[in-house]
Amino acid sequence: QVNSKQGGSPCKEKHVVLLSPVGRIEISGCELGVHEIKLPKISVLPAGAESSVSCEVSPGEQELPEPLQQCTAWLRAYFSEPGGTEGLPVPALHHPLLLRDSFTRQVLWTLLNDVKFGEAVSYKQLADLAGHRGAARAVGGAMSSNPIPIIIPCHRVIRSNGDSGNYGGGQLLKEWLLSHEKLQKEKLQK
């Protein structure tokens, strides 16, 4: 249960499931913003990293608070027409980790704002971008606590040697997301 800032009263949390090319993505949030995105654990790589229009939402989208509607629209665009995410607003985020000033919040916001679609940075580079030289390990910790994966693109953070590194949704999902973005970026540039 997430407490809202006004008077500490609990949010009226809603849930939605997005059926995506990588499986069931569970999204929770309230009128104030998205609380969390839970990725599926996949053990088999989904076929191809090309864009897919097979993103379906259940239950009916009209019953959802605006931040959840924006989140599902953003994720649908990410999977089906990735160039379209640039023009979409990032949904309001309402997770305690993102509301209080902290190293993790600073690193996640830097990642969201500075590492664009189809790009990748090392943990060390992200530490430097966030103004914390030498904090590559701490950046790894911040990535593992990211409550809003894909939108806050922790999958774009890789090891300095080029290995993809760990990911909350698993190695295969991280590699699929990186491949998907690379392929889509190449298509957009043609």
UniProtKB/TrEMBL annotation:
InterPro entries: MethylDNA_cys_MeTrfase_AS, MethylDNA_cys_MeTrfase_DNA-bd, MethylDNA_cys_MeTrfase_DNAb, MethylG_MeTrfase_N, MGMT_N_sf, WH-like_DNA-bd_sf. One of its GO terms (molecular function) is DNA binding. The keyword 4Fe-4S does not apply. This is Methylated-DNA--protein-cysteine methyltransferase. GO terms for biological process: DNA repair; methylation. CDD domains: ATase. It is an enzyme of class 2 (transferase). It comes from Erithacus rubecula (European robin). Its cofactor is Zn(2+). It catalyses: a 6-O-methyl-2'-deoxyguanosine in DNA + L-cysteinyl-[protein] = S-methyl-L-cysteinyl-[protein] + a 2'-deoxyguanosine in DNA; a 4-O-methyl-thymidine in DNA + L-cysteinyl-[protein] = a thymidine in DNA + S-methyl-L-cysteinyl-[protein]. It holds the Pfam family DNA_binding_1. Belongs to the MGMT family. PROSITE patterns: MGMT. Involved in the cellular defense against the biological effects of O6-methylguanine (O6-MeG) and O4-methylthymine (O4-MeT) in DNA. Repairs the methylated nucleobase in DNA by stoichiometrically transferring the methyl group to a cysteine residue in the enzyme. This is a suicide reaction: the enzyme is irreversibly inactivated. It is found in: Nucleus. Residues 105-182 form the Methylated-DNA-[protein]-cysteine S-methyltransferase DNA binding domain. Its EC number is 2.1.1.63. Keywords: DNA damage, DNA repair, DNA-binding, Metal-binding, Methyltransferase, Nucleus, Phosphoprotein, Transferase, Zinc. One of its GO terms (cellular component) is nucleoplasm. Its main location: nucleus. Residues 19-83 form the Methylguanine DNA methyltransferase ribonuclease-like domain.
